[in-house]
Write a structure and sequence with these properties.
With 287 residues, this protein is of the alpha/beta class. Helix content is 26%, strand content 23%. α5 (95-103) links the parallel β5 and β6 (109-113).
């Protein structure tokens, strides 16, 4: 069997509206090879280029969602369950909300929030295209969202706006500037989560100021309110075993100061030809 060359394209089949077999048949008719990932129960890597995929009529009709495989990890860490109440605090463009809805079988409640009304409007159209019916959209400053939903959600995802230094297209925003925003978004995410619930903080940057230092800040600012939980991928046997390289969180800050020891439970995804650099921290709100 020929293995696709780098970089890897990953699609998330939309099993809300179509079966996985129907989606695989689309690729077969187009002469595209699809390979299951060893660490995800439904996502596939695709042996073709992005232009070919996005020109398939089924792409525009919401049969599958295209994303870098690293972007699958935050929702896997969050592990939303059918019937739960879930918050996607910085949700646009909406890919992770779609991933959540699929894992929840369109049950329960998802609140998909973003600061920009324009982005929220585009996200709402995208969710409609993908047949997501268990999500409502809001345009509330994330730092204040907890005031409306205090202790409300079973699980909260904060895929935080960041400097994007783990991607091939980093932004011009400095890590220091982004960190000021990220701290208060995370504090809001924790307050919106019920005691005993799960909070996942993630970014697509490699900057320690936006990753480990944010978690260290919240552990000291709100001492005893959350714990950082270990996170590891579960794997199943497949013919394609391209997996991300997961590294523990860094133990020191950008200035060399020792960080909270539990930050070693966080995960860094090493940037490669296939995977964007990513950071994932899984936390539990204490009872």
């Amino acid at each position: 069997m020929q293995i696709p060359s780098s970089p890897m394209l990953t699609i998330l089949p939309n099993t809300l509206t179509h079966t996985r077999e129907e989606i695989l048949a689309i690729y077969a008719r187009a002469g595209i090879k699809a390979f299951p990932l060893s660490w995800h129960d439904s996502a596939l890597s695709i042996d073709t280029d992005k232009v070919t995929l996005t020109h398939l009529p089924e792409f525009m009709e919401g049969y599958f969602y295209l994303q870098n495989p690293s972007s699958l990890l935050p929702v896997l860490a969050l592990d939303p369950q059918p019937g739960e109440k879930v918050l996607d605090l910085a949700a646009a463009p909406g890919g992770k909300t779609i991933h959540m809805a699929i894992r929840m079988s369109n049950t329960g409640e998802i609140v998909a929030n973003d600061l920009s009304p324009g982005r929220v409007a585009r996200m709402r159209r995208l969710l409609t295209t993908y047949g997501v019916t268990n999500a409502t959209t809001t345009a509330i400053p994330g730092q204040r969202l907890w005031m409306k939903y205090r202790d409300h959600f079973d699980r909260v995802l904060l895929d935080a706006p960041c400097s994007m230094h783990g991607t091939d297209t980093p932004s011009t925003d400095s890590p220091a500037r982004m960190a000021r925003l990220q701290r208060w978004l995370l504090r809001s995410a924790i307050s919106a989560c019920r005691p005993g619930g799960i909070i996942v903080y993630s970014t697509c940057t490699t900057a320690v100021e936006e990753n480990e230092e944010i978690i260290d800040w919240i552990l000291r600012k709100d001492a005893g309110k959350v714990t950082v939980e270990p996170y590891a991928l579960s794997e199943v046997e497949t013919t394609r075993r391209l997996v991300p390289t997961l590294l523990p969180g860094l133990s020191t800050s950008a200035s060399g100061i020792n960080l909270h020891p539990s930050i070693m439970n966080c995960v860094r995804v090493e940037k490669s030809d296939d995977f964007e650099g990513f950071f994932v921290a899984k936390m539990r709100r204490r009872e």
